[in-house]
Design goal:
Jelly Rolls; 6-stranded antiparallel β-sheet; 5-stranded antiparallel β-sheet
Length: 199
């Protein structure tokens, strides 16, 4: 796999090498040992989720309260999405910094999202299918929703018409309200295992 660190410390884009022949293609999408080697953190999926979205659907920005916290390994297995992560870790030198990556089935890129980092995407095609391997199981009441259109974050979704959103996402609080409510993870609590030089 080719690995590139994003603008958000501890978040990486993994691009699997694809083997193609007359039958189609094969790729190793996730190797936990490689993710752990690159991130310096344990990553063993406890749950795998898939979402299917119509074009112009905006999902996010989502995170999980720490504890339990949740790291994600995200890929698009059908269609394409504009995926955006944003550093929501209080005290992080990159707090509020975002990174944009195109996830599409053809390229097979994958995105590792560390604990405390917000994640969302805009579906660029109909029937876009995104799969997430996550480090902790779903626990009701631990989800954090941040307004993806919060002007303070100014995330570059690139939509040309109002996006399709769930009521929960459309009514989500801004980053300042989440910060004031003490919902966001502390950088020191979730970044302690990031190797020196990546902090």
């Amino acid at each position: 796999m080719d690995v590139v660190e994003t603008r958000v410390p501890g978040a990486f884009v993994f691009t699997p090498k694809q083997i193609r022949d007359e039958r189609g293609a094969f790729a190793e999408v996730l190797r936990c040992d490689r993710v752990e080697e690159v991130t310096g953190r344990p990553f063993r999926p406890a749950q795998i989720n898939c979402s299917v979205s119509r074009r112009n659907t905006l999902r996010g920005v989502h995170s999980v309260i720490t504890p339990p916290g949740q790291a994600k390994y995200v890929t698009c297995v059908r269609g394409a999405v504009r995926d955006i992560i944003v550093d929501l870790r209080v005290g992080s030198p990159a707090f509020g910094v975002h990174h944009v990556v195109l996830l599409d089935a053809d390229a097979g890129r994958c995105l590792y999202v560390p604990e405390g980092v917000g994640h969302g995407f805009l579906a660029l095609t109909d029937d876009a299918c995104v799969c997430y391997a996550v480090s902790t199981q779903y626990v009701p009441g631990t989800q954090i929703e941040i307004d993806p259109l919060d002007p303070e974050l100014a995330l570059p979704w690139g939509h040309t018409e109002p996006p399709v959103m769930s009521a929960k996402d459309a009514q989500a609080q801004g980053v300042r309200a989440a910060l004031d409510a003490g919902l966001l993870a502390d950088w020191r609590d979730v970044a302690t295992a990031i190797p020196v030089g990546r902090q």
